[in-house]
Amino acid sequence: MSNGTLVAGVGNVFLGDDAFGVEVARRLAEQPLPAGVRVEDFGIRGVHLAYELLNGYDALILVDAAPRGGEAGTVYVIEADLDSAAAADAQQHPAAPGALLDAHDLSPDAVLALLKSLGGEVGRIHVVGCEPERVAEHMGLSEPVSDAVEEAVRAVRSLLNREERT
């Protein structure tokens, strides 16, 4: 692996706070970033993200809405690994023989499980998530989630600085 760090914003812009990762990626893409960092808005294209990761990145920073039971707008930084994510997805969504893959509805765990099933690897995995207030058909982030975008941008930049030193 030697393709640097991929910052992947994911989420559905038509589902309110689910667009958190997309907005953070948009803001980061407007800023100067360290060499070797690629920022991309993958939206709901989880399969494309899995295939992009097959290019072999040293690190992945995945930015997404992350319902964990906290207060809306709470930003989480979560360390993850490919094996744990794939196991979590298998537990939540046991595959039936011949099951179809919904390319527009892949959770981060499912994307990483797909990557693993394709024989791919990624060095370090970080998730920068935000507790959503509302994930329903609606355009735009709720106020607490919108207010958390800059905090998430700072968290991603901090992780990038740490990756540069690694």
TrEMBL record:
<keyword id="KW-0064">Aspartyl protease</keyword>
<dbReference type="GO" id="GO:0006508">
    <property type="term" value="P:proteolysis"/>
</dbReference>
<dbReference type="InterPro" id="IPR000671">
    <property type="entry name" value="Peptidase_A31"/>
</dbReference>
<dbReference type="InterPro" id="IPR023430">
    <property type="entry name" value="Pept_HybD-like_dom_sf"/>
</dbReference>
<keyword id="KW-0378">Hydrolase</keyword>
<comment type="similarity">
    <text>Belongs to the peptidase A31 family.</text>
</comment>
<protein>
    <submittedName>
        <fullName>Hydrogenase maturation protease</fullName>
    </submittedName>
</protein>
<keyword id="KW-0645">Protease</keyword>
<dbReference type="Pfam" id="PF01750">
    <property type="entry name" value="HycI"/>
</dbReference>
<dbReference type="GO" id="GO:0008233">
    <property type="term" value="F:peptidase activity"/>
</dbReference>
